[in-house]
Specification:
Layout lengths: L5 H16 L1 E5 L5 E17 L2 E7 L5 E6 L2 E6 H17 L8 H8 L16 E6 L6 E11 L6 E3 L7 E6 L3 H8 L3 E2 L5 E2 L2 H10 L3 E6 L10 H9 L3 H13 L8 H11 L7 H18 L16 E5 L5 E5 L4 H9 L1 E4 L14 E3 L2 E6 L2 E4 L3
Parallel strand pairs: 1-14, 7-13
Antiparallel strand pairs: 1-2, 2-3, 2-6, 3-4, 4-5, 6-7, 8-18, 9-12, 9-17, 10-11, 13-14, 15-18, 16-17
Helix pairs in contact: 1-2, 7-8, 8-9, 9-10
Length: 377
């Protein structure tokens, strides 16, 4: 272990907390803890590296946890994990930016078998749990969970990238105006210059430039609009949703970034001219949010299959750990809908250098991009 941010350190904290309590509570439909709905954790498994798997066996008959790594086995009292979790939570809350834990704490955590900040899983799962439902007596083995932390910056549900940008053809643009728009910058509190996306967008409108949605970027290797094809699997009208949403947010016609408010705005505009806009657009974006949770990205062709067989574990700002089942259910989709917001990412190269006017084959273009985060409430 070296340095990490609060969200990354929270993955280790979450594991320690689960092993300390040896049970995990399940969230209800509103995302709140249900005091009578918990699962006993019999085993926690984490892929530390491609060939290094750590297993923690929690016996219901003792107050000990048995750690197994390859042929090595060690048993530690539950109190060890409780002490480490409490200490780590305090250090995470005090940390700023990317930081290291105290040397003594890192050493003690390493001794529990946790040596990597991030799991090495190829899917979305950070840990795998074998759990017992005390009410039904049913045991489920190796259920995958991702870990999302609300300590620090809100976690991301849909990550932005070059291929998620919406491309617009500009009518009424000139080379001189292009230079003028691209010269608009602002300075943050640290003195760093940045691109003010909203200001540039509104400058286009103020100069009478019309933006016509033209699709998504062509993937460099695949030579197709990957994100567009992924959206077509869910609903071919989804590009209209995001186009209308971004226009509304950047023009400030849409009053808030939270998904319910944005969806209500899109329903009022009704860009697809559907007969029941409120039902259609809400269902549409819920399907996208769930697909994003299950593995849909903008840069990889998606086949509609889920990479999830369990759910995700939320680490709240106060350190509470709560599990959410992500089985395709209306209640989980409703939770994602109610607790997500559309955000504007940084305008760097990895995000496609969007919000900059450019010329291609004699035409002028402008890109907008977005990401979707969980909203911390």
């Amino acid at each position: 272990m070296d340095k990490a941010n609060k969200g990354e350190w929270s993955e280790i904290y979450c594991i320690l907390r689960i092993l300390a309590e040896r049970k995990i509570y399940i969230a209800d439909g509103s995302g709140k803890k249900h005091s009578e709905d918990c699962l006993n954790v019999l085993e926690l498994m984490r892929k530390e590296a491609a060939e290094r798997v750590v297993r923690y066996h929690c016996s219901p008959l003792t107050t000990e946890v048995t750690i197994t790594v390859d042929s090595y086995t060690e048993t530690l009292p539950v109190s060890t994990f409780l002490k480490l979790a409490d200490t780590m939570l305090l250090e995470i809350k005090k940390g700023k930016g990317t930081f290291a834990l105290s040397e003594s704490l890192q050493r003690e955590i390493n001794e529990t078998g946790l040596q990597s900040v991030k799991a090495a899983s190829r899917d979305k799962n950070d840990v795998y749990l074998t759990i017992l439902d005390p009410r039904s007596g049913v045991t489920r083995k190796n259920i995958g969970f991702s870990i999302k932390s609300e300590i620090g910056k809100a976690p991301t549900l849909f990550n932005t990238g070059t291929n998620s940008a919406l491309v617009y053809e500009l009518n009424g643009m000139t080379p001189e105006l292009m230079d003028e728009i691209n010269s608009i910058f602002e300075v943050d509190s640290s003195g760093e210059k940045f691109v003010p996306v909203m200001t540039r967008f509104q400058a286009l409108a103020n100069n009478g430039v019309k933006l016509t949605f033209a699709g998504f970027p062509i993937h460099k290797r695949k030579k197709i609009q990957v994100f567009c094809e992924n959206l077509e699997i869910l609903n071919p009208r989804l590009p209209l949703y995001f186009d209308t949403a971004l226009r509304g947010l950047l023009s400030q016609a849409c009053p808030s970034r939270d998904v319910p408010t944005v969806t209500d705005y899109v329903s009022q505009i009704n860009p697809a001219h559907v007969k029941r806009p409120h039902e259609v657009y809400e269902y549409m974006i819920k399907s996208f949010l769930y697909a994003a949770y299950c593995g849909l990205t903008a840069g990889t062709l998606w086949n509609g299959k889920s990479n999830v067989n369990g759910g995700f574990i939320r680490v709240a700002a106060d350190g509470e750990v709560l599990a959410f089942y992500a089985l395709e259910s209306d209640s989980f989709k409703q939770y994602l809908f109610d607790n997500s917001l559309i955000d504007l990412p940084a305008t760097d190269k990895s995000h496609g250098n969007y919000a900059e006017v450019y010329e291609e084959d004699g035409k002028f273009y402008f890109r907008l991009n977005f990401q979707i985060r969980y909203s911390v409430k």
